[in-house]
Amino acid sequence: MVVCGLACWRCRWLLPLLLGLAIIMGIIALAGRGWLESESEPYVQQASLWESCTRGEDDLNWSCQSLMDYGWGRAAAATYLVGFVILVICFALAVIAFSIEILRFNFVRGIGGLLFVVAAFQIIGLVIYPVKFVEEIPLTGDNMFSWAYGFGWASTVVVIGCAFFFCCLPNWEDEVLGNIKPTYYYSSPERAPYLN
């Protein structure tokens, strides 16, 4: 029978796997055109992290404007992108850390600290974008921050969760490495007659 608790050596790949999932969601957020979209028909507005596009109700072609022309657009893209790059570095470090037979727990805690930095950068980018977008870009119709923006937040939430686990993992060092023996508790000799 395979028993795998929260902090066991056999489950060491769970945290790098979650970081990989955060990277995939970050790629979707960086490449997706659904940061802002029209809420209902006619779909006349859509935006990504990089550009804002509009079209007329009867027009099939999108007219796009780069958000890199704005200081806040460059700031939002840069902070999210820096966070993403550090996330990829943390993923590589986690794979290396968990591949080594003798796990260095201080190294793992450092990865957790870097993940908090990733979360801070991503949150800054995810907050700058909607606040300044609504202030400075003329919106047409009813709009909503959509799926790609949601993937950005999902990636950030996974990173925050992994950061806590990476920072707390050294507290379970003996359990993870299997250095402790199980303890059996018996309340009375009558309940365990076979020990006599």
Describe the protein in words.
One of its GO terms (biological process) is apoptotic process. The chain crosses the membrane at residues 12-32, 77-98, 110-131, 151-172. InterPro entries: P53_induced, PMP22/EMP/MP20/Claudin. Its main location: other. The chain has 196 residues and is of the alpha+beta class. The protein has helices at residues 14-31, 71-99, 105-136, 147-168, 173-177; strands spanning 36-38, 45-47, 51-54, 63-66, 143-145. It has one domain: Butyryl-CoA Dehydrogenase, subunit A, domain 3. It is built from five helices and five strands. The chain is elongated.
SSE topology:
Layout: H1 14-31, E1 36-38, E2 45-47, E3 51-54, E4 63-66, H2 71-99, H3 105-136, E5 143-145, H4 147-168, H5 173-177
Antiparallel strand pairs: 1-2, 1-5, 2-3, 3-4
Helix pairs in contact: 1-2, 1-4, 2-3, 3-4
Can you summarize this structure?
With 196 residues, this protein is α+β, with helices and mostly antiparallel strands. It has helices at 14-31, 71-99, 105-136, 147-168, 173-177; strands at residues 36-38, 45-47, 51-54, 63-66, 143-145. This is p53 apoptosis effector related to PMP-22.
